[in-house]
Write a structure and sequence with these properties.
By secondary structure, this protein is mostly helical. It is built from twelve helices and no strands. The protein has two domains: 142 residues, no CATH class; 171 residues. Keywords: Cell membrane, Membrane, Transmembrane, Transmembrane helix, Transport.
């Protein structure tokens, strides 16, 4: 009798495991299909994502104006114009000082090249001018032989820049419409859905909106810490163009991996051509320390608090996103992980708590709720 009972329990456990495995397989297949559709629609999805992130950044000001009685269209227009002015001012803070000191920087580049040649001519390298000329001729010949591939790369680069401009313009227009009409979206969505979905979907969407806002604010705080740390180090080392480099560091913090590398390269290059090799190495050490603190301490802690995720989850999400989709994957990994956590927490609440009244209102957030 005991053996028969144990056999029945084993078969029941096996059936339950098989059913669970089948359901998990269906979920994975559905996720793969969704990812394929997103990849196919990426030229539309990417501007939409950028516009949503920009909207979370600018919505507090738009909400403030709307609550003071400003019409939605006028509030959205004012916020969009202010955003463009801030973006233009940021570019000016970087470009104007650089242009005013371009002559000094050019002289520094020439002097740096001269010092490099003098260093290469001495021990231990002992490279004379004839060897340098020979290497230059060989590099020129290689470039001439690779003219076709270089042209293709240039065309690809121009296409990428053009695509980026189109994405930016489209995201800007979408941001304006989100600021203007966003609060009407969730009530409209709730009216289109049947039964409990009329409450569940708008509630989850509102929580996801809060999660995106937390991500943008935390990323801005991380960029500010980077800018302060790098700017202070450059000021102490007497590197020119401290303010433009600090602004560039803040802006670059919103672009994972490549942004930090680009900002650091520019800072080291300016230190090299202005103050010499030793100063450039010190600047490089400062940037490495700041980036290590930002990537391994500040960013995981700040984003984990803002999104309700553990710091280890943030690190793993960035690593996985970068391996799956490169730079865009690294940029979107943390907010996507935050959205998944929001959805999972809501599902867990609904499974453990009694269902809410379908007539309950949607939480007060920036999207989908009348101001």
């Amino acid at each position: 009798m005991s053996a028969t009972l144990n056999s029945r329990r084993a078969r029941a456990a096996l059936r339950a495991s098989a059913r669970l495995s089948g359901e998990l397989l269906l979920v994975l297949v559905m996720a793969a299909v969704v990812l394929w559709v997103v990849g196919w629609m990426w030229p539309v999805v990417w501007p939409l994502v950028v516009a949503l992130l920009l909207t979370t950044l600018t919505w507090p000001l738009a909400r403030f104006l709307r609550r003071r009685g400003v019409a939605p269209a006028l509030a959205a227009s004012v916020v969009t114009v202010l955003f463009l002015l801030v973006a233009a001012g940021t570019v000016a803070l970087i470009a104007v000082p650089v242009a005013s000191q371009s002559g000094e920087l050019a002289d520094g580049v020439v002097e740096g090249i001269r010092r490099l040649r003098e260093w290469a001519a001495g021990p231990p390298l002992n490279i004379d001018d004839d060897q340098i000329a020979h290497a230059f001729d060989a590099a020129t010949a290689r470039i001439q032989d690779s003219a076709g591939s270089i042209a293709n790369t240039a065309v690809t680069g121009v296409s990428t820049v053009f695509s980026g401009v189109v994405t930016a313009v489209l995201a800007l227009f979408l941001m304006f419409f989100f600021l203007k009409d966003g609060p009407r979206f969730l009530p409209w969505l709730g009216r289109q859905l049947p039964g409990r979905l009329a409450t569940d979907i708008p509630t989850v969407a509102a929580r996801c909106w809060d999660s995106l806002g937390a991500f943008v604010r935390s990323q801005a705080l991380v960029g500010l810490l980077d800018a302060v740390g790098v700017g202070l180090g450059l000021w102490l080392l007497d590197v020119p163009l401290v303010l433009p480099l600090a602004v560039l560091t803040f802006v670059a913090a919103f672009v994972p991996i490549v942004g930090a590398l680009f900002a650091g390269f520019v800072a080291v290059l300016i230190a090299l051509v202005s103050n010499g090799l030793t100063n450039a190495l010190l600047v490089l050490a400062v940037i490495i320390v700041v980036q290590q603190l930002e990537g391994n301490v500040f960013q995981p802690i700040i984003q984990s608090r803002g999104l309700g995720l553990h710091a280890a989850v943030v690190l793993l999400a960035v690593t996985l996103g970068g391996s799956l989709a490169g730079i865009a994957g690294s940029f979107l990994a943390v907010p996507v992980a935050g959205l998944i956590a929001v959805i999972w927490n809501y599902v867990r609440e609904q499974l453990s708590d009694p269902p809410q009244d379908p007539g309950a209102g949607v939480p007060d957030t920036g999207v989908g709720v009348p101001s």
